[in-house]
Amino acid sequence: MIQIKTLLNCIDNSGAAIVECISPGALKMKRPAQIGERIVVVVQKQRSFGPETGPGGGVSISAANKVRRGDVRHAVVVRTAKKLQRKDGSVVKFDDNACVLINKNGDPIGTRLNGVVGAELREKGWSKILSLAPMHL
Question: Whole-model pTM?
Answer without folding.
Answer: 0.87
